[in-house]
Model the fold of this input.
Amino acid sequence: MSALLSANKTVFKCLTALSSRGLSIGAASLQGSGHLKGRSCLTLKDFSSEEIKRLLWVSGDLKHRIKHEKQYLPLLQGKSIAMIFEKRSTRTRMSTETGFALLGGHPCFLTSQDIHLGVNESSTDTARVLSGLCDIVLARVYSHSILEELEKEASIPIINGLSDLYHPIQILADFLTLQEHYGSLSGLTVSWIGDGNNVLHSFMMTAAKLGVHLRIATPKGYEPDRSVIQEAQRLSKEHGTQLVLTSDPMEAAHGSNVLVTDTWVSMGQEEEKKKRLKDFKGYQITMQTGSVAKPDWSFLHCLPRKMEEVDDQVFYSSRSLVFPEAENRKWTIMGLMVSLLTDYAPQIPMPKF
Done:
Protein backbone atom coordinates (compact mmCIF):
# COMPACT_ATOMS: atom_id res chain seq x y z
CA MET A 1 0.00 0.00 0.00
CA SER A 2 2.76 2.39 0.96
CA ALA A 3 4.57 1.59 -2.30
CA LEU A 4 1.41 2.44 -4.27
CA LEU A 5 1.00 5.77 -2.44
CA SER A 6 4.64 6.59 -3.12
CA ALA A 7 4.20 5.85 -6.82
CA ASN A 8 1.05 8.02 -6.99
CA LYS A 9 2.91 10.88 -5.32
CA THR A 10 5.68 10.59 -7.89
CA VAL A 11 3.20 10.70 -10.77
CA PHE A 12 1.45 13.70 -9.19
CA LYS A 13 4.77 15.56 -8.88
CA CYS A 14 5.54 14.89 -12.55
CA LEU A 15 2.13 16.13 -13.68
CA THR A 16 2.47 19.22 -11.49
CA ALA A 17 5.88 19.96 -12.95
CA LEU A 18 4.54 19.67 -16.48
CA SER A 19 1.62 21.92 -15.66
CA SER A 20 3.88 24.56 -14.15
CA ARG A 21 5.84 24.65 -17.40
CA GLY A 22 2.65 25.11 -19.40
CA LEU A 23 2.91 21.71 -21.06
CA SER A 24 0.13 19.22 -21.64
CA ILE A 25 0.88 15.51 -21.51
CA GLY A 26 0.87 15.44 -25.31
CA ALA A 27 3.24 18.40 -25.52
CA ALA A 28 5.55 16.77 -23.01
CA SER A 29 5.56 13.62 -25.15
CA LEU A 30 6.56 15.62 -28.22
CA GLN A 31 9.18 17.55 -26.25
CA GLY A 32 10.62 14.19 -25.33
CA SER A 33 10.66 12.96 -28.92
CA GLY A 34 13.66 15.10 -29.76
CA HIS A 35 15.85 12.09 -30.54
CA LEU A 36 15.69 12.78 -34.27
CA LYS A 37 19.21 14.19 -34.41
CA GLY A 38 21.42 11.98 -36.54
CA ARG A 39 18.48 10.11 -38.12
CA SER A 40 17.87 9.78 -41.85
CA CYS A 41 14.50 10.31 -43.52
CA LEU A 42 13.94 7.95 -46.43
CA THR A 43 10.27 7.34 -45.66
CA LEU A 44 7.82 8.47 -42.99
CA LYS A 45 7.07 4.80 -42.49
CA ASP A 46 10.10 4.90 -40.17
CA PHE A 47 8.70 7.76 -38.04
CA SER A 48 6.19 7.46 -35.21
CA SER A 49 3.11 9.59 -34.77
CA GLU A 50 4.87 11.69 -32.11
CA GLU A 51 7.94 12.17 -34.30
CA ILE A 52 5.92 13.34 -37.30
CA LYS A 53 3.97 15.75 -35.12
CA ARG A 54 7.21 17.10 -33.73
CA LEU A 55 8.56 17.68 -37.25
CA LEU A 56 5.40 19.65 -38.08
CA TRP A 57 5.69 21.57 -34.80
CA VAL A 58 9.32 22.53 -35.48
CA SER A 59 8.41 23.54 -39.04
CA GLY A 60 5.56 25.75 -37.89
CA ASP A 61 7.78 27.24 -35.22
CA LEU A 62 10.51 28.18 -37.70
CA LYS A 63 7.91 29.66 -40.06
CA HIS A 64 6.49 31.79 -37.25
CA ARG A 65 9.82 32.99 -35.91
CA ILE A 66 11.51 33.66 -39.27
CA LYS A 67 8.64 34.74 -41.53
CA HIS A 68 6.34 36.50 -39.09
CA GLU A 69 8.67 37.60 -36.27
CA LYS A 70 11.51 38.44 -38.70
CA GLN A 71 14.05 36.66 -36.51
CA TYR A 72 17.42 35.53 -37.81
CA LEU A 73 18.11 31.97 -36.70
CA PRO A 74 21.53 30.71 -37.88
CA LEU A 75 20.82 27.24 -36.53
CA LEU A 76 22.86 25.55 -39.26
CA GLN A 77 25.79 27.98 -39.35
CA GLY A 78 29.00 26.20 -40.27
CA LYS A 79 27.13 23.23 -41.76
CA SER A 80 26.77 22.17 -45.39
CA ILE A 81 24.37 20.02 -47.39
CA ALA A 82 25.00 18.06 -50.58
CA MET A 83 21.92 18.19 -52.82
CA ILE A 84 22.02 15.35 -55.37
CA PHE A 85 19.44 15.73 -58.15
CA GLU A 86 19.02 13.00 -60.75
CA LYS A 87 15.59 14.51 -61.52
CA ARG A 88 14.93 18.23 -62.00
CA SER A 89 12.67 20.16 -59.60
CA THR A 90 11.56 23.70 -58.83
CA ARG A 91 10.16 23.29 -55.33
CA THR A 92 12.58 20.74 -53.93
CA ARG A 93 15.66 22.63 -55.08
CA MET A 94 14.46 26.11 -54.14
CA SER A 95 13.05 25.11 -50.75
CA THR A 96 16.15 23.17 -49.73
CA GLU A 97 18.73 25.56 -51.10
CA THR A 98 17.16 28.77 -49.82
CA GLY A 99 16.04 27.15 -46.56
CA PHE A 100 19.48 25.81 -45.66
CA ALA A 101 21.09 29.16 -46.54
CA LEU A 102 18.47 31.07 -44.52
CA LEU A 103 19.49 29.00 -41.50
CA GLY A 104 23.14 30.00 -41.98
CA GLY A 105 24.34 26.87 -43.78
CA HIS A 106 25.96 26.28 -47.17
CA PRO A 107 24.06 24.27 -49.80
CA CYS A 108 25.92 22.56 -52.64
CA PHE A 109 23.83 21.55 -55.67
CA LEU A 110 24.96 18.47 -57.63
CA THR A 111 23.27 17.35 -60.85
CA SER A 112 23.81 14.16 -62.80
CA GLN A 113 26.41 16.13 -64.75
CA ASP A 114 28.38 16.76 -61.57
CA ILE A 115 28.02 13.41 -59.82
CA HIS A 116 27.39 10.05 -61.46
CA LEU A 117 25.84 7.87 -58.78
CA GLY A 118 26.72 4.25 -59.40
CA VAL A 119 28.36 5.07 -62.76
CA ASN A 120 31.79 6.67 -62.40
CA GLU A 121 31.72 6.05 -58.66
CA SER A 122 29.71 3.57 -56.62
CA SER A 123 26.96 4.72 -54.27
CA THR A 124 29.00 3.20 -51.43
CA ASP A 125 32.06 5.32 -52.20
CA THR A 126 29.94 8.42 -52.83
CA ALA A 127 28.25 8.04 -49.43
CA ARG A 128 31.58 7.67 -47.64
CA VAL A 129 33.17 10.59 -49.48
CA LEU A 130 30.24 12.93 -48.82
CA SER A 131 30.20 11.89 -45.14
CA GLY A 132 33.61 13.52 -44.82
CA LEU A 133 32.75 16.63 -46.82
CA CYS A 134 29.34 17.74 -45.57
CA ASP A 135 26.87 17.29 -42.72
CA ILE A 136 23.77 15.98 -44.50
CA VAL A 137 22.67 14.79 -47.95
CA LEU A 138 19.38 15.31 -49.78
CA ALA A 139 19.04 13.07 -52.81
CA ARG A 140 16.32 13.23 -55.46
CA VAL A 141 16.66 9.98 -57.38
CA TYR A 142 14.89 7.58 -59.71
CA SER A 143 15.38 4.41 -57.68
CA HIS A 144 14.68 4.19 -53.95
CA SER A 145 17.40 1.53 -53.67
CA ILE A 146 20.02 4.23 -54.25
CA LEU A 147 18.82 6.05 -51.14
CA GLU A 148 19.01 2.82 -49.17
CA GLU A 149 22.60 2.27 -50.33
CA LEU A 150 23.56 5.85 -49.40
CA GLU A 151 21.94 5.54 -45.99
CA LYS A 152 23.66 2.22 -45.31
CA GLU A 153 27.15 3.52 -46.04
CA ALA A 154 26.92 7.17 -44.90
CA SER A 155 27.75 8.36 -41.40
CA ILE A 156 25.57 11.47 -41.85
CA PRO A 157 21.78 11.85 -42.31
CA ILE A 158 20.28 11.13 -45.74
CA ILE A 159 17.00 12.80 -46.80
CA ASN A 160 14.79 11.44 -49.57
CA GLY A 161 14.12 14.39 -51.88
CA LEU A 162 11.94 12.06 -54.00
CA SER A 163 12.27 8.49 -55.21
CA ASP A 164 10.12 6.13 -57.24
CA LEU A 165 8.66 4.74 -54.00
CA TYR A 166 8.22 7.69 -51.61
CA HIS A 167 8.15 11.50 -51.41
CA PRO A 168 8.15 12.20 -47.64
CA ILE A 169 9.10 15.88 -47.74
CA GLN A 170 6.05 16.64 -49.89
CA ILE A 171 3.72 15.04 -47.35
CA LEU A 172 5.16 17.03 -44.46
CA ALA A 173 4.32 20.20 -46.41
CA ASP A 174 0.83 18.92 -47.19
CA PHE A 175 -0.01 18.17 -43.57
CA LEU A 176 1.43 21.47 -42.31
CA THR A 177 -0.79 23.23 -44.88
CA LEU A 178 -3.88 21.31 -43.73
CA GLN A 179 -3.07 21.88 -40.06
CA GLU A 180 -2.84 25.62 -40.69
CA HIS A 181 -6.03 25.66 -42.78
CA TYR A 182 -8.30 23.52 -40.58
CA GLY A 183 -6.70 24.17 -37.18
CA SER A 184 -6.14 20.45 -36.55
CA LEU A 185 -5.65 17.23 -38.48
CA SER A 186 -7.28 14.45 -36.48
CA GLY A 187 -10.63 13.45 -37.96
CA LEU A 188 -10.05 14.95 -41.40
CA THR A 189 -10.73 12.86 -44.50
CA VAL A 190 -8.29 13.14 -47.40
CA SER A 191 -9.28 11.78 -50.82
CA TRP A 192 -6.60 10.89 -53.34
CA ILE A 193 -7.85 10.77 -56.94
CA GLY A 194 -5.16 9.78 -59.40
CA ASP A 195 -2.10 7.58 -59.83
CA GLY A 196 -0.91 5.13 -57.18
CA ASN A 197 2.49 6.80 -57.04
CA ASN A 198 5.23 7.86 -54.60
CA VAL A 199 3.27 10.81 -53.19
CA LEU A 200 0.28 8.59 -52.46
CA HIS A 201 2.59 6.02 -50.85
CA SER A 202 3.84 8.70 -48.46
CA PHE A 203 0.27 9.76 -47.65
CA MET A 204 -0.49 6.13 -46.85
CA MET A 205 2.49 5.87 -44.48
CA THR A 206 1.52 9.06 -42.63
CA ALA A 207 -2.22 9.78 -42.58
CA ALA A 208 -3.32 7.23 -39.96
CA LYS A 209 -0.54 8.33 -37.60
CA LEU A 210 -2.12 11.78 -37.59
CA GLY A 211 -5.69 10.51 -37.18
CA VAL A 212 -6.53 11.26 -40.82
CA HIS A 213 -8.89 9.05 -42.86
CA LEU A 214 -7.78 8.22 -46.39
CA ARG A 215 -9.98 7.46 -49.40
CA ILE A 216 -8.10 6.43 -52.56
CA ALA A 217 -9.32 6.20 -56.16
CA THR A 218 -6.92 4.89 -58.80
CA PRO A 219 -7.68 3.41 -62.24
CA LYS A 220 -7.38 -0.35 -62.47
CA GLY A 221 -3.77 -1.22 -63.09
CA TYR A 222 -2.50 1.92 -61.35
CA GLU A 223 -3.06 0.89 -57.73
CA PRO A 224 -0.51 1.61 -54.99
CA ASP A 225 2.25 -0.89 -54.28
CA ARG A 226 0.85 -4.01 -52.59
CA SER A 227 3.31 -3.88 -49.68
CA VAL A 228 2.42 -0.23 -49.08
CA ILE A 229 -1.28 -1.10 -49.04
CA GLN A 230 -0.68 -3.83 -46.46
CA GLU A 231 1.27 -1.50 -44.19
CA ALA A 232 -1.34 1.25 -44.59
CA GLN A 233 -4.08 -1.20 -43.62
CA ARG A 234 -2.11 -2.17 -40.53
CA LEU A 235 -1.59 1.48 -39.58
CA SER A 236 -5.26 2.29 -40.15
CA LYS A 237 -6.30 -0.52 -37.84
CA GLU A 238 -3.74 0.47 -35.22
CA HIS A 239 -4.78 4.14 -35.16
CA GLY A 240 -8.53 3.63 -35.69
CA THR A 241 -8.83 5.44 -39.03
CA GLN A 242 -10.61 4.52 -42.26
CA LEU A 243 -8.80 3.43 -45.40
CA VAL A 244 -10.87 3.04 -48.58
CA LEU A 245 -9.52 1.88 -51.95
CA THR A 246 -11.69 2.14 -55.05
CA SER A 247 -11.55 2.88 -58.77
CA ASP A 248 -14.47 5.35 -58.58
CA PRO A 249 -13.36 9.01 -58.13
CA MET A 250 -16.79 10.13 -56.89
CA GLU A 251 -16.88 7.37 -54.29
CA ALA A 252 -13.46 8.46 -53.04
CA ALA A 253 -14.51 12.13 -52.91
CA HIS A 254 -17.71 11.44 -50.98
CA GLY A 255 -17.69 13.14 -47.57
CA SER A 256 -14.10 14.31 -47.93
CA ASN A 257 -12.45 17.43 -46.50
CA VAL A 258 -9.51 17.41 -48.91
CA LEU A 259 -9.28 16.42 -52.58
CA VAL A 260 -5.75 15.64 -53.76
CA THR A 261 -4.23 14.67 -57.07
CA ASP A 262 -0.84 14.66 -58.76
CA THR A 263 0.64 14.30 -62.21
CA TRP A 264 -0.61 11.36 -64.22
CA VAL A 265 2.67 11.14 -66.14
CA SER A 266 5.78 11.31 -63.97
CA MET A 267 9.31 11.93 -65.22
CA GLY A 268 10.49 8.75 -66.93
CA GLN A 269 6.96 7.80 -68.03
CA GLU A 270 6.70 10.07 -71.07
CA GLU A 271 6.39 7.14 -73.49
CA GLU A 272 3.28 6.00 -71.59
CA LYS A 273 1.56 9.39 -71.85
CA LYS A 274 -1.01 8.54 -74.52
CA LYS A 275 -2.11 5.36 -72.76
CA ARG A 276 -2.17 7.01 -69.34
CA LEU A 277 -4.34 9.90 -70.51
CA LYS A 278 -6.82 7.37 -71.86
CA ASP A 279 -6.75 5.24 -68.70
CA PHE A 280 -7.24 8.24 -66.41
CA LYS A 281 -10.29 9.58 -68.26
CA GLY A 282 -12.89 10.68 -65.70
CA TYR A 283 -10.30 11.38 -63.00
CA GLN A 284 -10.02 15.15 -63.51
CA ILE A 285 -10.97 16.99 -60.32
CA THR A 286 -13.72 19.55 -60.97
CA MET A 287 -16.37 21.34 -58.97
CA GLN A 288 -18.61 18.36 -59.75
CA THR A 289 -16.14 16.14 -57.89
CA GLY A 290 -16.30 18.55 -54.97
CA SER A 291 -20.12 18.50 -54.97
CA VAL A 292 -20.07 15.20 -53.04
CA ALA A 293 -17.34 16.32 -50.64
CA LYS A 294 -17.94 18.17 -47.38
CA PRO A 295 -18.91 21.87 -47.58
CA ASP A 296 -15.46 22.93 -46.35
CA TRP A 297 -13.51 20.88 -48.92
CA SER A 298 -10.15 22.09 -50.11
CA PHE A 299 -7.73 21.05 -52.85
CA LEU A 300 -4.05 20.08 -52.87
CA HIS A 301 -1.62 19.34 -55.71
CA CYS A 302 2.16 19.00 -55.27
CA LEU A 303 2.80 20.63 -58.69
CA PRO A 304 3.59 20.99 -61.52
CA ARG A 305 -0.03 20.65 -62.62
CA LYS A 306 -1.59 19.80 -65.96
CA MET A 307 -5.13 20.74 -67.06
CA GLU A 308 -6.24 17.14 -67.42
CA GLU A 309 -5.63 16.54 -63.68
CA VAL A 310 -7.66 19.45 -62.32
CA ASP A 311 -9.52 22.23 -64.12
CA ASP A 312 -8.89 25.95 -63.68
CA GLN A 313 -12.14 26.49 -61.79
CA VAL A 314 -10.84 24.36 -58.92
CA PHE A 315 -7.12 25.04 -59.25
CA TYR A 316 -7.44 28.83 -59.04
CA SER A 317 -10.40 28.89 -56.65
CA SER A 318 -10.42 29.88 -52.98
CA ARG A 319 -10.61 26.17 -52.17
CA SER A 320 -7.18 25.58 -53.67
CA LEU A 321 -4.29 25.54 -51.18
CA VAL A 322 -1.63 24.72 -53.78
CA PHE A 323 0.44 27.87 -53.37
CA PRO A 324 0.57 27.86 -49.54
CA GLU A 325 1.34 24.15 -49.95
CA ALA A 326 4.27 24.98 -52.24
CA GLU A 327 5.59 27.59 -49.80
CA ASN A 328 5.37 25.13 -46.94
CA ARG A 329 7.81 22.88 -48.77
CA LYS A 330 10.40 25.40 -47.58
CA TRP A 331 9.37 25.50 -43.93
CA THR A 332 8.99 21.75 -43.61
CA ILE A 333 12.34 20.90 -45.20
CA MET A 334 13.88 23.47 -42.89
CA GLY A 335 12.13 21.86 -39.93
CA LEU A 336 13.35 18.43 -41.01
CA MET A 337 16.96 19.52 -41.54
CA VAL A 338 17.07 21.34 -38.21
CA SER A 339 15.60 18.31 -36.44
CA LEU A 340 18.11 15.89 -37.99
CA LEU A 341 21.12 18.13 -37.34
CA THR A 342 20.44 19.88 -34.03
CA ASP A 343 18.74 19.57 -30.65
CA TYR A 344 16.44 22.52 -31.40
CA ALA A 345 13.30 22.80 -29.28
CA PRO A 346 10.26 24.71 -30.62
CA GLN A 347 9.54 28.05 -28.95
CA ILE A 348 5.85 28.39 -29.83
CA PRO A 349 3.15 26.33 -28.05
CA MET A 350 2.44 22.94 -29.58
CA PRO A 351 -0.38 23.27 -32.15
CA LYS A 352 -3.45 21.08 -32.04
CA PHE A 353 -3.08 17.94 -34.11
Observations:
- The chain is about 45% helix and 10% strand.
- Residues 59 and 331 are 5 Å apart (CA to CA).
- Residues 1-25 have pLDDT under 50 and may be disordered.
